[in-house]
């Protein structure tokens, strides 16, 4: 549980504080700076090392389409888990037809350098290195006769894409 006490934010546990910081979109500046006023040095150290809370402009956001959010919700329901226990991870790797390729996986753990993007309860995780390649892009879920898959569409950081839909050339 968290509560405001004067100009300080007091948390009943470090674990709950991390959950709030990672999950709650309004936990950002200037509220984050108020955590520095918490008397516990241990808590401040935890936030400095383990939590990255950023606010993104619309151009910096990795957008999630409704079909992507819906498919992720379906997967969560099939597994019987909450949105915090099953998230979609997008990463960019070297390789593919055009030099780089998108890789999607399901993940249950946040990493310290992850950026988290949300839509209707669905969460998309992007690591710091991959974020530079997908900033401003849109993640979609497409269902076609030959395959159904999560895809990246409208990526402003790519100059060309391969017909396979997973490979791209970076600007």
In terms of quaternary structure, the protein is single chain
The CATH topology of the largest domain, please? Hypothetical Protein Aq_1857, Chain: A
Poorly predicted residue ranges:
1-14, 23-32, 48-55
What would you say the CATH architecture of the largest domain is? Sandwich
The strands making up the biggest β-sheet line up spatially as 6-7-4-5-11-10
| Total E-strand runs | 11
The number of distinct structural domains comes to 2
The Rg value, from CA coordinates, equals: 18 Å
Largest sheet: 6 strands, mixed
The CATH superfamily of the largest domain is known as: HesB-like domain
Which CATH first-tier class of the largest domain would you pick? Mainly Beta
* Residue fraction in strands: 25-35%
Quote the distance from N terminus to C terminus.
Answer: 45 Å
Helix content: 25-40%
Q: Give the mean pLDDT.
A: 75
The number of helical segments is 5
> Which secondary-structure class do the elements indicate?
alpha+beta
């Amino acid at each position: 549980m968290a509560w405001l006490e004067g100009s300080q934010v007091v948390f009943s546990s470090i674990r709950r504080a991390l959950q709030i910081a990672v999950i709650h979109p309004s936990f950002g500046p200037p509220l984050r700076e108020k955590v520095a006023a918490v008397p516990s040095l241990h808590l401040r150290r935890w936030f400095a090392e383990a939590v990255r809370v950023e606010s993104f402009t619309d151009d910096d956001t990795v957008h999630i389409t409704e079909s992507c959010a819906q498919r992720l919700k379906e997967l969560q329901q099939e597994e019987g888990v909450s949105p915090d226990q099953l998230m979609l991870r997008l990463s960019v790797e070297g390789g593919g037809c055009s030099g780089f390729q998108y890789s999607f996986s399901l993940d249950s753990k946040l990493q310290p350098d992850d950026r988290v993007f949300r839509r209707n309860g669905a969460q998309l995780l992007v690591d710091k290195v991959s974020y530079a390649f997908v900033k401003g892009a849109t993640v979609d879920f497409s269902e076609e006769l030959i395959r159904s898959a999560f895809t990246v569409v409208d990526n402003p950081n790519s100059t060309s894409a391969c017909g396979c839909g997973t490979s791209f050339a970076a600007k």
